[in-house]
Write a structure and sequence with these properties.
By secondary structure, this protein is an alpha+beta fold. It folds into 3 domains: about 5-35 and about 455-595, Aldehyde oxidase/xanthine dehydrogenase, molybdopterin binding domain (Aldehyde Oxidoreductase, domain 4, 2-Layer Sandwich); about 40-145 and about 200-275, Aldehyde Oxidoreductase, domain 3 (Alpha-Beta Complex); about 295-450 and about 605-750, Aldehyde oxidase/xanthine dehydrogenase, molybdopterin binding domain (Aldehyde Oxidoreductase, domain 4, 2-Layer Sandwich). Helix content is about 25%, strand content about 25%. The strands form 7 sheets. Strands 3-5-1-15-12-13-14 form a 7-stranded mixed sheet, sandwiched between helices. A hairpin with a 2-residue loop joins β24 and β25. α7 runs parallel beside α15 (about 725-735), α10 (about 480-490) packs parallel to α11 (about 520-545) and α14 (about 645-665) packs across α15 (about 725-735). The longest helix has 25 residues, at about 520-545. The protein is globular, with a radius of gyration of 27 Å. It starts with about 25 loop residues before the first helix and ends in a 16-residue tail after the last helix. The protein binds dioxothiomolybdenum(VI) ion. Dioxothiomolybdenum(VI) ion (MOS) binds next to loops. Dioxothiomolybdenum(VI) ion binds near residues 219, 249, 357, 358 and 516.
């Protein structure tokens, strides 16, 4: 049996030479040379272009479309409307499980958000389709749009996020606040944000009879197959999806989006391949966003700074027709020890596209508010923010009372603080300046994200030449999954990575589960690990039963796979290579399947989270209020690191997103029309290179024997948490101003 990766003891990992190596991105050269084929790069013969016409009101009714004008335009082949769209096997507004998002597929004339598709024009060229869509000149009957958290009645939420309880409580929060020597009672607001993946949502769709061939970016090939099969009334296996690369997903490509389905419908009615790619402004509506939140946070502390109560009451929004609610308060369940914790979510329904998972959904908006409030609590007790956090360090998960499967947060605090130089920080705000006279501030925040796992399958083959083939329908959305998973795959069969072919990214491969919740490496990685172990076990059965093998009779002693050879566990000099075993057995390959899932017993016994600590320095112009982040240091403990280069890159990406949350991102909604007014990358501000300071991400060693056999927790989303709060707290420290509405802008700091 292969024992590679079955232990977290680094000394016993000697057989696995790939896990832990800082290998470069397998598709890196393809991407920098422009030769990686993204979905929209496909142009099958006879392909037509589809362009959406969209609603310019947020609520009301579509009254008319000038179809004649569009149809008369040279090159236009078809105009698809509510009247002639192909029949669907399932109502796009039906929902048979919580992971099914309601879609706008021209089912009727109702308008429920600005940017909702109202027609699709299909033409021989992109230009003709674009002009045709403009010529439709839709007319609407508008009703007043509800676009802010105060525009509709709030109601209590039973569930938030992916089915978490909307309310949770331990202890007596009111008693904790009543007996507290110091309290903080503050309200933080976070804005609507949009995923803005660099690659817009799109599809290239071909029907071959009732078989569907798709080039379409997705974070979940199998779920996309299922969803589309339901809508079109065909078998999932009759849908083939290629999604080798995604130009970012961030949650918005977790499910097929309505416009992608419209592209497939357009191919149906024209009988030709169709490409539909959203324009940037069309991504502010039908493909999800992060909903705004308003979080009232109440904290109670003893005079000595021990928390006596934590409460977060969050109001957030969903659409009028679906049910995704940002679980912003939940981060208070995990972060700090307190005898009493209460979280409450209430919802309002707005005339907006349905919100969706967006990078660290809940944790991002929840932690920027809580980490700011904790900074306020530290200040109220006259304590250093790090000392305050250490005082309230949670040795067990506060909400559940469970022990953590592992928690190296103390080491994160120590290593991050040492690297940053935190020890020299004066408590008083406005007490540091740089050489140019700009105000300097230092802030910190705690990072956390749950270590999730989903279900996945993989297949491992050892071929006649002794090389390996490992397959799982995994998704590389830029995070480096293809690289990290290939490393796990190679170790799983005891081969150097050059001798392993790793296939991923298409729907005909075993289901790798969703690339989301920071769980893809753990989930797909464990399936590969299991498949590899199973195929090596089959090889071992063959060899140990074969009198001609040096491994004959070693069945009880056990064998190990290393560097393409199977060797005796008790004497690694005795063994033979994979190819020899297969040749003597007369086999051209040996193959096995593996699968992964979270272990329910371990999940029941332990709380599983990654942790981190982020330290930020900002400088603020005292006259103009201009804010610059000048340093960012994060230290993160997230279990085993498969590839430190990819992990560092993920953490940097997350930290930049945290910076963006604190200082940049904000979808501005026009209250009169319900339209996003900055629906483009010029006005919807995200950090550019000049906004991003030198960053460091320290990978803190952490062994976890419970989370899964490989000890992987996941790093995709944790970087965004902690960072936003650290920057907000640094702004406070620099200026003496506490800004409780994000993003913080210069207008908040002057006057
Ligand atoms: Mo992520 S929001 O789980 O893609």
């Amino acid at each position: 049996m292969s024992e590679i990766g079955l232990t977290n003891d680094p000394g016993r990992m000697r057989h696995g030479s790939n896990i832990g190596q800082p290998m470069t991105r397998r598709e890196g050269v393809l991407k920098v040379t422009g030769s990686a084929t993204f979905a929209a790069d496909n142009h099958p013969p006879g392909m037509l272009y589809a362009v959406l016409a969209t609603a310019t009101i947020a609520r009301g009714r579509l009254v008319s479309l000038d179809e004649a004008a569009a149809t008369a335009h040279p090159g236009v082949v078809a105009v698809m409307t509510t009247a002639n769209r192909p029949p669907l096997a399932m109502d796009p507004d039906a929902k048979t499980n919580p992971f099914m998002f309601r879609l706008d597929l021209l089912q009727n004339d109702r308008i429920r958000y600005a940017g909702q598709p109202v027609a699709v024009v299909v033409a021989e060229t992109l230009e003709a389709a674009t002009e045709g869509a403009a010529l439709l000149s839709p007319r609407f009957e508008a009703e007043p749009a509800r676009s802010t958290l105060d525009d509709a009645d709030a109601f209590a939420l039973e569930t938030v996020g992916a089915g978490n309880p909307g309310q949770a409580e331990i202890g007596d929060v009111e008693a904790g606040l009543d007996t507290a020597g110091r309290t903080v009672d503050v309200t933080y607001e976070t804005p609507a944000q949009y995923h803005n993946a660099m690659e817009p949502h799109g599809v290239v769709a071909r029907w071959e009879g009732d078989r569907l061939e798709l080039d379409m970016p997705t974070q979940s090939l199998a779920m996309a197959q299922q969803r589309l099969a339901g809508l079109f009334g065909i078998a999932p296996t009759d849908i083939h999806i290629r999604s080798p690369y995604l130009g970012g997903g961030f949650g918005s490509k977790g499910f097929p989006a309505g416009p992608q389905v419209l592209g497939i419908m357009a191919a149906r009615i024209t009988g030709r391949p169709v490409k539909l790619v959203l324009r940037r402004e069309q991504m502010y509506g039908p493909v999800g966003h992060r909903a705004p939140t308003r979080q009232r946070i109440r904290l109670g502390m003893t005079e000595g700074g021990a928390l006596t109560a934590i409460e977060n009451r969050t109001r957030t929004a969903s659409s009028t027709f679906d049910d995704f609610f940002e679980p912003a308060a939940d981060v208070a369940h995990t972060l700090y020890a307190s005898p009493a914790i209460r979280t409450v979510h209430e919802g309002v329904r707005l005339d907006t596209g349905t919100p969706l998972f967006m990078r660290a959904p809940g944790e991002a908006s929840g932690s920027i508010a809580l980490e700011s409030a904790i900074d306020e609590a530290a200040e109220a007790t006259g304590m250093d923010p790090l000392a305050f956090r250490l005082k309230n360090y949670a040795e067990r998960e506060p909400i559940s009372g469970k022990p953590f499967s592992s928690k190296a947060l103390r080491a994160c605090y120590e290593q991050g603080a040492a690297r940053f130089g935190w020890a020299g920080r004066p408590l008083e705000p406005r007490s540091m300046r740089d050489a140019a006279g700009r105000l300097l501030g230092w802030g910190m925040g705690t990072a956390t994200f749950p270590a999730l796992m989903f279900q996945a399958k993989a297949r491992a083959t050892i071929r006649a030449d002794g090389s390996g083939l490992l397959e799982t329908g995994a998704h590389d959305m830029g995070q480096g999954a293809w690289t990290a998973l290939a490393q796990i795959a190679a170790d799983a069969v005891g081969l150097p990575i050059e001798r392993v072919e790793f296939r991923a990214g298409t729907s005909d491969l075993p289901d790798a589960g969703i690339a989301g919740g920071s769980g893809h490496t753990a989930t797909a990685g464990m399936a590969l690990h299991a498949a590899g172990a199973a195929v090596i076990a089959r090889l071992a059965e063959i060899a140990t039963a074969d009198e001609a093998s040096p491994l004959y009779g070693a069945g009880n002693i056990g064998t190990l796979a290393q560097n393409g050879r199977l060797v005796r566990r008790d004497d690694e000099t005795r063994g033979e290579d994979f190819a020899t075993i297969l040749r003597r057995a007369g086999l051209d390959k040996v193959e096995a399947d593996g699968q992964s899932a979270a272990d329910p017993a371990a999940r029941d016994a332990y709380a599983m989270h990654a942790h981190g600590a982020v330290f930020a320095e900002v400088s603020v112009d005292p006259d103009l209020g201009q804010i610059r982040v000048t340093r960012l240091v994060g230290a993160f403990a997230a279990g085993r690191v498969i590839n430190p280069r990819m992990v560092e890159s993920q953490l940097f990406g997350g930290m930049i997103w945290g910076l963006s949350f604190a200082l940049h991102e904000h979808a501005v909604v026009d209250r009169r029309t319900g339209r996003v007014m900055n629906a483009d990358l010029a006005e919807y501000r995200i950090p550019v290179n000049a906004d991003v300071p030198p960053m460091e991400a320290i990978l803190v060693h952490e062994d976890d024997a419970h989370v899964n056999a490989l000890g992987i927790k996941g790093v995709g989303e944790i970087g965004i948490t902690g960072t936003g709060g650290a920057i907000a707290n640094a702004v406070r420290h620099a200026t003496g101003r506490r800004v409780r509405r994000f993003p913080i802008g210069l207008a908040d700091l002057i006057g």
